[in-house]
Amino acid sequence: MSKDLLLKARDFEARYGPFISEEQRPAFHLTPTIGWMNDPNGFSFYKGEYHLFYQYNPYSTEWGPMYWGHVRTKDLLHWERLPAAMAPDQEYDKDGCFSGSATELPDGRQMLVYTGVRRCLSPEGRTEETQTQCIAFGDGTNYVKYAANPVLTAKDLPEGGSGVDFRDPKVWRDTDGVYRLVVGNRTRDGSGAVLLYESADGEHWSLRGPVDASRNQYGLMWECPDFFPLDGKQILFVSPQDMSPIGLEFHAGNCTMCLIGRYDRESNTFEREGVQAIDYGIDFYAPQTLLAPDGRRIMIGWMQNWNTVSSKPRDCRWFGQMSLPRELSIRDGRLIQAPVRELESCRRNKVIYQDVLVNSETNLHGIQGRMIDMTVTVRPAGRGDYSCFRLNVARDGEFVTTIRYKPDTSILKIDRTHSGSNSDVVHTRSLLVRPRNGEIKLRVIMDRFSIEVFVNDGEQAASAAIYTRQEADAISFDAMGTVLIDVEKYDLEV
Ligand code: FRU
Predict the structure, then answer these.
(1) What is the pLDDT of residues 102-111, one digit of tens each?
(2) Are residues 331 and 449 in the same domain?
């Protein structure tokens, strides 16, 4: 295999990445140096900074042979670009260095754990894929693949497991000093499962057993698992493929799922107590978390969905962005997400309105923009009823993205049908929210090419990419019936 692949990619990104101007990208959401990006990988804290790697094809804005792109940051908002970390340059990963994670070794090296993909032709002329788990060691910039890779292969699977769908290891060093990783797989019935492996040194791994499985209830292959304690509970994240819709909780296709439960490490038993979506918007997949030195559990996701990737601007030089990093917690047995608090120091030009009566299309002086942090609280006006409230953003005479709320059903809907996309993909998503004393609170973060909505102090999050031209920066409010709204809005300067 060519050892030059990584050098070529590094040369390519250094040469052509700078052709993309800052204004052509989001200001604080990560985009690839150039080309295509999907899942976050190796989200970790190392040598005093956060590191983030990502699934990367520098040569095209389409998915292709997977490299690992690499950035680091001190504040989770300003990303410093580093050279690509890995290329598919070995026999065992020649068809892709798929998703994985990172941890620090006691000797100060960083260890990357990832899935090596290899395709070959069967005697019957069929292309067969094998997925194995591999490791690499490095110093935060350069990584060397382990000479004895792969470290986990089909022979390490439980009976009935799949050597074809065996991917996305999430590693951590546990409180007892043992390295553990969870990885996606399938059970004999063909549906998704998460397996747990253990290692004393990070190099030699053995199967501990399954953690949980879909049993054909929540989609087929379970991609990108993560497994961590949070506020006295144990959380299992997975990104199921081929999900069948379940009410408004899960839509068809690629979903994200949070299983909340209890875990006994001794017996490796995970007991589910609750199941919910992680993000209820249009574009979110494959999230990964880290434990920050200050104790925060921080998550970042790919703010895109496989089912909508054909909706992209013509002639774009980058495609795919990460979500805002979000602080996680548990409240009333549910997952709570809040934009990282670092964002607050980027707020400028505060504009505040209180008790504004809205019963027709309303513009408020100072409320516009495409890089904003805005909280809108909506309540019925006095005894008056209302049947619908609308918040319109990224708006001009032609385009608009709408967040609509109907109190009779408690359904919030994000609608980007008129955001400028000409692709026939899903453009709306509805979610069931929980009003408090008849009130709902929407925190909206926009960053040129996206909108993330946090409902009722992070009880639900909903994300969508929007590629509307930047001149469309008007914001308006509208109601059928009468509502009172409070608005607190900041420009974001990152
Ligand atoms: C999830 C995923 C992973 C895989 C990677 C390949 O989005 O399909 O399962 O490792 O993307 O790029």
Answers:
(1) 999 999 999 9
(2) no
